[in-house]
Write a structure and sequence with these properties.
This protein is of the alpha/beta class. It has four domains: 90 residues, Rossmann fold (3-Layer(aba) Sandwich), CATH 3.40.50; 30 residues, no CATH class; 54 residues, no CATH class; 66 residues, no CATH class. The protein contains ten helices and ten strands. Strands 2-1-3-4 form a four-stranded parallel β-sheet, with helices on both faces. Strands 7-10-8-9 form a four-stranded mixed β-sheet, covered by helices on one side. Helix 1 links the parallel strand 1 and strand 2.
Amino acid sequence: MRSLPLFHRIAGTPVIVLGEGGMAEPKRRLVERAGGEVIADLQEGIDKGARLAFIAHDDEAMCEADAIRARCAGLLVNVVDRPDLCDFTTPSLLERDPVLIAIGTSGASAGLAKQLRLRLEGLLPADLGALATRLSEWRGRIKDKWPAMADRRQALDNALTSGGPLDPLREGAANRLEDWLAGKAEEGLSGKIEITLASTDPEDLTLRQARLLGSADAVLHDPAVPAAVLDRCRADALRFPLPYTGRDPAGLVVIIHI
């Protein structure tokens, strides 16, 4: 690894953000979202015990000078758009509180990280965070049912796996937790779901359609469905073309078996 990924708690602590305009403002918002106190003066931040500094001046010489000064004071430094001057970089974030997924490229390409995040956005259900919260709240009940750590780990792995009763890529997993603990939950998801495409452009897939394609074991599809759409399926999913229907591209059917 070129970088060590860490989640840094900054709530209630000072964080230096230097600069004005389009490069500095996103960093201020990022610090505020994480609960940090934004300090716009380098010396004030040092005096208050800041540990992180974001530097986003338009003037490159100012960036270099402030980076050296902050680093000499013991701060970790991020200079916007200058990975060679950075002690750390900021990833592209996908948030399903309390689940937080950070995608980084060690400063190689912020655009690539963004596009990867957008792809994952379509796969992860909006209520994923509710599952994480419920698992945390019910940790004691889970431990009571499976006192041995090895048994507990195996039970959770089986429940959270693809097609399992708590599959995190399926909506409503948090609502199935109680049935799972009571031994009433389905052991897996089975059956078929039919998807009707609005167009042949994979960018027009709904979030639900993208999630279903990404979790299917087998896909039966109209021969006219383009490869770009089928590429959203799991790489190991079985694919079977249906008899040609002669329909227009809009309205093509994909049948998902899970």
